[in-house]
Request: fold
Amino acid sequence: MSEYTGKEPCVYSEFHMFADKNKSIEELLKNTKIYIKNEILEINTERELVPYYANMCGIVCGTKEDGVIKTCIHITSVPYFLSQDWERTEEIYKDIQRLWKQCKRKKIPFTLEYIKKHIWYDEQPCIEPMFNEIKEHPYAKLVRGKYHSTWMQMYRDRLVETMQEFGYTDEQINEWVWNGKRTW
Reply:
């Protein structure tokens, strides 16, 4: 299982397994094409690859030419844990909106205690701010990335640690890990 996504198969591990056979990741990257959608990324060092560890979704190792394995890696446009986080927070937000409608229909007070009593994931820190927002604007749509759940925190923390080890700044890490965007 991947230490950056929690998914099987672990593309990160498979990539490192192939790199070990080739002596270094830089050696393997020379013969690797990395795609986001249909674009090829120019990645030549492990440091450049690190932010994409949680984005790797597939690896294909092809033929050996002159003793060198040709490799192709496909990656998603946002880290897996971030897309899962967005799905979970949308789910929570919609559940709170549903409970608001239920309270309105039953003519009972819409309270945080009522919310926590009727949803099973009441330990999420995003519930109270969502509750407050829905209480003031019950029909508002959720802004993606505004709230975060704790379900994927372990994978987010692991990527942060790895990026710190490779010398990324806190601004770069926060921009990538929390928003899936990169301006550097």
